[in-house]
Give the backbone structure.
Amino acid sequence: MRKIDDIFPSLKLVPAIIIATIFAIVLELSGSWVTMLIAGILGSLFTRTSKRAFLVGFVGVAIAWTLLFAYLSFSASALEIADFFIGLLGLSGMGMLVIVISVLLGALLGGFGGLLGRNAVQLIDEALHEPAKESAPQQQTT
């Protein structure tokens, strides 16, 4: 049985981030923010360290959500809606803060999804491919 790491190629940081961004953009279409964990997990399959997996998920989802909010700001007046919600807290004129916090939360979801995916792959690979330990019968000395 092959290792999971043997199935997916190890990519450099930028191509892995691009792949995670594409996964995040596609999964955004589902309308559920929870799918950003899945985008991070899928992006982490192309890295080999936990640090890079977190970074790939974090940056990939941050780029995807920034693109989404940029599109919504130009087409659907997202900034005015954000200004309204932040105005309810008495912080009028700081609608961009809502968008920045949303992007950071999404990026953290992607980062922790990447960390979860990388560590799950390592755990599964180690558990399935651990060499069988044969214990020889011990002789008792008298």
Q: What stands out?
A: Residues 4-128 form one domain. DSSP finds six helices and no strands in the chain. The chain has one domain: 4-128.
